[in-house]
Amino acid sequence: MLASLLIVFREVFEAGLVVGIVMAVTSGVPGRTAWIAGGVGAGVLGACLVALFTSGLSELFNGSGQEVFNASILGLAVVMLTWHNVWMSRHGRELVDELRAAGEAVAAGSKSLFALAVVVAIAVLREGSEVVLFLYGVAAAQGGASWSMVGGGFVGLILGSSVCLLTYLGLVTIPARYLFSVTSALIALLAAGMAAQAIAFLEQANILTALDETVWDTSWILSDSSYLGKALHTLIGYVDQPTAMQVVVYAATLAVIVVLMKLFSAPVQQQRRPHAA
Amino acid sequence: MFPNSFSIISRRRERAVAIANKASLVGPVRCIVPVLMLGMAFAFAAGSAPARADDTVQLSITMKDHQFDPAELHAPPGKTIAIHVKNLNPIVSEFESSDLHFEKIVPVGSEGVVYVRPQQPGRYNFYDDFHRETQGFLVVQ
After folding, report:
1. Is A95 on the interface with B (CB under 8 A)?
2. ipTM
């Protein structure tokens, strides 16, 4: 019971942080509940499919199929988060300032919601497939699902989901005028962390060997396998022993997002004029 | 001649607008293609060039009855180490190490490989994350 509780809690906790941030980022955007729920649903479905095809997936690419798959979907999540931030830097203020419920704004908003729904689906898929594999393995070994396993999993799910809720409730207490900047920063850090993690998978598969020396070791201060370390790993990409390539890619991702946001951001003065008139 | 070429231009414009509309609708979807291509490029690179194969230390380990065999692996420092792990448990395992930063699902009866690059001599712990009583070590000296 304790094993299934802990495993389910740990995975739901990590996915829950991402879902919590996305909920806070989209608070006040019409139709967001359906998109996020859709993302979670698609993620659960995807997790079951990945679990089902794990053997086949593992054998691809000289036995590094899992790593290539994980790196690819993390890369996709990075692109979606970047796209979202760039889109928000252009249109976000219109949504936040005016809260237009006009059809146009909803249609435009849903494009950005799609990107975030993909991110939610990827987070749920990655963590969920481990849960499915573990619980299925336990059930298979026991010759069926037991109450203690289901009960443990359920408690883990509730505890993990409460982390998601706390993340969301914590973020929405931030005053509305700062919320936009804070969530943009969070999304950028989330993306940079995911990019660095994709690099870790490619290094594990020996696909990427350049700049593989460890830059620093802070495991004695905060191990990235502790709960706080894991939370920071998911949120801002904290790694206690990063390779040089991970650091480079992390910094590059952040730089690209900031530059793209600056390039595409709506000119402030032009936007002010219609208000004055 | 004039009306004719004008209609061609306007038709072209209509098409361009239609394409632009379509493109903006599928904005996020468009991004999927380059990412998948990038993934495939990496995969091809992996397939075509077994990177530094001669330099790599090859180690093998099995998981059976929820124990690692051997329980301790040995390797020299400063080299890339390939750990081939075979799961002979009747249940799926996750070969993982927080010391060495890897995690890999190993289905029943199958074999997987992870590459690690420990730079310092030391005793590095690894385990089956689905069955934490299964513990092993990589000794680098």
Report:
1. no
2. 0.83
